[in-house]
Design goal:
homopentamer, 41% helix
Chain lengths: 304, 304, 304, 304, 304
């Protein structure tokens, strides 16, 4: 497939990266039904780690099989599939070359006693499994934030040196943050900005509310109407180097399909690059999931 | 011995592994009286570390000698022998090539003040001792869980790079878990799933009870009858990548032989791959142990 | 451009450094409108990390774009541009060779719970991005001071081995220091001296007040009139190996332009080497910022 | 000297070790007046670290000189001399080839605030000083036990890779252990067993009392008469892989010569390999010490 | 200069060291007016780190310049100059070959909250700066003692491997030690002995008082009259391997010249190797300092 102008424009923003890393970003951007549009949908499946297998998969039994998710992402025409080590190992050969994979390198679980994650994989794993990118979660605001940053800066440097891209999940939590504050606009924009500052190629955050959490930040936000979600998306994108970095938003817990579609329209209208959406599709029957993903693709294509 | 279809099918699930690692898994799967069936019995002897020598061996004095255990595993026609560094060193040459060994790389002891283990060996040790696999214990739920995960992910990556398989003992304990919860079905299935996610080739868990520990998991389990042990085994196997990983179950403390045999039948009927059984055989006189192991072999062969 | 006598004299003080490191110091000293004078103005933009993007850039929207700052530093004829990893990555290629860059290797943020910073980059990053220097913050007096020192001593040794210069931001805080004490003359001079002792090429401190914080230091300061800011600057410079190290002073929070100009005159008159000034210019409209920086340049040239 | 059958039998138990490591064990076993018997006496001098120089040497002033101890061990016809780094450095060249040395790699001191030791040397030190073995203390039961184990497992792996033997001092203390329990039979046997499990070639423990400390271990010990010290020695030896590892016992604080001799007879009769005895000889005048060591040698030779 | 018999005798005690390390010890022993006598005076200037620049240098303003101290040590005919990284860097080229330098590798400061020091340099720094030795402070008795020991054992091993000597400052403090106890004879002798045990070539301690701090050590000291300072020096020297290691004593805080001279006579008469003396000379005007050092040299030469 010939590289489109939209993708060329995005890649040009990664001006310090090696051809190898750009090629892996291009693999993701040129994959699937959104290939070439500059938009992307990524299927992440790390809920087995976070919530356990039964809570994740009992509702849709075929999803216990790692191959199910590879196939779902391929059949839906998505851009990439992201999962922890074992999940990727279990399908890396069968689906080699069929869809770019993102190896999620750290994970938490239901019993975690700190706002931290365990590192569960390495750049060497990503290389041997043919992954296009590594994924990593940071918790801005938590007591482990500095440690998480120091872990990803080493992994990311190593990844860049071998031409692998870096995706950072930036989830504010812990410390002085209120529960509401974890989703606040100022907090989410700050979290996205820090992911950009530590060198992420793709930044993944939650859709922010119109709450402003930090007192010191009130002044910078007042006088603007933040009630429209698309405006909030646009602000987050601006906070990622004025749109020089790819920003995708997560869908959150499984919810009504209509809400999912509206989120996607807001992401699109606000200039976001797409969605990372996991539980919503894989906790539905495959046909329903394919239908939902088809509609999301069409939304990002501007077809509805 | 020609590779059987059953073993070929199992090995095919380890699709990201090198021929070297697959060969070591095959060594275990093709060994002994269960060789080729896809079932396995492993003799583990780390109780000297966990409980001290007298509590472990006084009841059967020949068991003080490391050679005793190698010979017992060989004579009973088992698939592998697992033990800590010193125990393997003491027989590695005498029994070289007679039975695959699993070097247990971490251990706790009676005086441990935290839910943690000390690393007592390395992949280099496994190589020089000709081991087919490394073994490692993790404690999901404990305050040391992240540290344990980060230790095994490094050891496992190194092992895979030199063609050695990884066996993970996944024992939930500590933290918010109740004593009953350590054996709960949801907890055990979660623990097994996490072992798969961090890259284990063989997963070792305890036989779960029908208790459901986690509130958030109740919904996923309700509406199903979990009273049969074989069904619980089947659920755990499903949680290990829908059966794409070898799962073996431990026999627990020495108990009546009948209970041991019933456990094995349930493991077999539920689709488990076999037993790791230590104290039950080696704390009995050798002839009784051989008789017990003979019967277990026949159960796994479906002969009774 | 031919090296001036003023710059040659400064470089001669770095007698243990390699030609490579001296060449990078020379790149900074010979750059821009102050090139060759021995004075320098550096534009630092790490407020996005420290305060978040909106608090930093909302007041001057073009500043959300990393290219804005490169261009501002170039157009104003400054000596160098300092920023964290992502900010440098985003413009390193476009502006390659147009202005020396300083890669800031550690950063804090609004939610930090300790007087510490996370390491966010490496000397390898500085090399691949073509930076002339690395930057690093230490907090004398804080509970993390020893750790920070041990981090920079490793980074600095590595940087010197590849010909990259080291800039240390030395900010006393925490521990027994009073709020007023953080800006005290004795404390600031001590902080600058320690930066010199651990091997900094360029030392960055805040302009000190005439307060003397430490009881034990009172005697050394009494009998001298410290009311003039230029005299305090001269004392700090003397504490940096009697002027053998380059010392620059920060402008602090955005304030009135007149105060900024007076500070620069005092720095110049006290023998300081210049200013690191960030928020004051980039939180003003570009034309105002250029006017302010133009006047600062003229002050350091002794033209007003 | 031709290798004796007794020594050949012992070396055969170290079946996983390289010829280099066996040669160093042989050097110790074939040295001095007990050379070839399979018994050994080792002179350890680390009391300067543990108790300070005056408490250690003032009672016998020539002992302040490191050469004194080398010469004493040689003149008494002992098998090896063990000491910390500086003590070995101070005589390594003068006495090179005259007696095998054991470099003690960790030490505590009178002011230690935890049940831990500082690592004070390395395998590289042992190599450059021509040592036959490294020595290391572990404290089973203490809060530092896991750390100590992880330190020695790395040092021991490295030592084995260069043909140097490992001697482990296994001293239970701290945690839940009572003072009496530190010398209990079950505790001492457990401590010796763990030293064997982590790969020691030579295990050094204290002579155990007939106290049984652990409730859970009572059953394993009841019904046997443990009042004879030689029987307790035999039990400890059995717990070291049924006699497949060399076990030596310490003499404890300086005491009456008759008690020392009786201890040696019990060690010999119980199948122990010998004594590590320091303060008893070097805190006596040289002639008395030589007489004491002469008698110990004769006891181990079965001559009295 | 031909090597003298006195120096040859000292070097012979360093029997395990490489010719490279001995050559660096010889450089120090053969330097200056005491060259060849076996005695030495070292000028240490790390007070800027410990107390800050103004408290250290305001009393003698030329001392703010690092070159001042190099020149003072050269002009006074001393044996070596010791200072932290930045101080050595600032003069290493100008004074190359004129006086041996000792790179002080760790330092504390006025705000330290623990009895610890930060590592501020490396053996690689010592090599590139042409230093004859590294210097390192340990705090026997403090909660950080084990960490400090483990740091210096690694640095010292590395230094020995490249032919650089090791000087250890051994300063008891913290923990259970009383203020008076930090200077007690038994404590100082113990501290000196531990420095020898961990492999120091030159040991630096404070002149001890006649107080005996440790109850357990009383017996070893009773019955001897310790009222003469020279006898206490002799005891410390004996505790450093019976005089096989070079021992120098510090002058403490600036004090009256007569006390300084008497200390030197006592050190000389007790068999100590000399003084490390900093504040006393550099906090006096240069001419006074030269006169004081001249007299110290003459005392060590036995000329008064």
């Amino acid at each position: 497939m010939t590289m489109t102008a939209a993708v060329k424009a995005i890649l040009a923003n990664y001006e310090s990266d090696s051809p190898g890393t750009k090629a892996n970003l291009a693999r993701i951007l040129m994959q699937g039904r959104l290939g070439g549009t500059g938009k992307m949908i990524i299927l992440p499946v790390d809920q087995g780690f976070e919530h356990g297998p039964a809570r994740s998969f009992a509702v849709n039994e075929p999803a216990y099989d790692p191959h199910y998710h590879f196939q779902l992402a391929i059949d839906a025409g998505l851009n990439a599939y992201a999962a922890p080590l074992g999940m990727i190992e279990a399908g890396a050969d069968t689906f080699a070359g069929q869809i770019p994979t993102i190896l999620k390198l750290n994970s938490s679980n239901s019993w975690a006693m700190t706002r931290d994650q365990a590192v569960t994989g390495s750049v060497d794993d990503a290389l041997r499994l043919g992954c296009a990118a590594i994924g990593f979660t940071i918790y801005p605001g938590s007591e482990s934030f500095f440690d998480l940053v120091e872990e990803i800066r080493e992994l990311s440097l190593e990844a860049k040196s071998v031409g692998i891209a870096t995706v950072i999940w930036s989830y504010p939590r812990g410390g002085d943050l209120s529960k509401e504050g974890e989703l606040a606009l100022d907090v989410g924009a700050y979290a996205a900005h820090m992911a950009a500052l530590i060198g992420a190629h793709i930044i993944k955050v939650k859709l922010p509310s119109d709450h402003i959490e930090q007192k010191d930040a009130q002044k910078a936000y007042e006088g603007t109407d933040w009630s429209k979600q698309s405006d909030r998306v646009r602000h987050v994108v601006k906070c990622c180097f004025n749109g020089r970095r790819i920003v995708v938003f997560s869908g959150g817990a499984a919810k009504g399909a209509d809400a999912v579609f509206q989120d996607a329209r807001d992401i699109r209208d606000g200039g976001g690059n797409g969605s990372i959406i996991g539980r919503n599709p894989f906790q539905r029957p495959r046909e329903e999931a394919l239908a939902m993903l088809d509609r999301l693709v069409r939304i990002y294509k501007g077809e509805e």
